[in-house]
Write a structure and sequence with these properties.
Strand content: under 5%
Order of helices and strands: HHHH
Number of strands: 0
Radius of gyration: 17 Å
Structural class: mainly alpha
Oligomer: single chain
Length: 101
């Protein structure tokens, strides 16, 4: 018997070198640009600092993937909020996406 799992977890797809710039461009044209652009820049600066200390690009990739997920979810969230349904039992996005390292 082997202690190895039957299937190895599939790593996330590699990000394009321009992924952060693309996310920032999408944020700048979004309805929430006034709050999301500074938040992205703050997260990016924190990820950059973490990368400098760890010599890894993973913190920056985590920032880009998190913001990509937020952008993908934004239309659904807006639709839900516009529907007038009760959102008092919502789930924190960080819990849904998983905590960053």
């Amino acid at each position: 018997m082997s202690a190895q799992p039957d299937r190895a977890p599939v790593p996330p797809a590699p990000l394009a070198p321009t992924a952060a710039a693309q996310v920032l461009a999408q944020l700048r044209v979004s309805e929430r640009a006034d709050t999301w652009v500074p938040a992205f820049q703050h997260d990016w600066a924190r990820g950059l600092e973490d990368s400098r200390h760890s010599y890894s690009l993973s913190p920056l990739h985590d920032v880009v993937r998190t913001w990509q997920a937020r952008l993908e979810a934004a239309p659904y969230v807006a639709e839900f909020l516009a529907s007038g349904r009760d959102d008092s039992e919502g789930v924190d996005l960080a819990d849904a996406l998983g905590r960053q390292r």
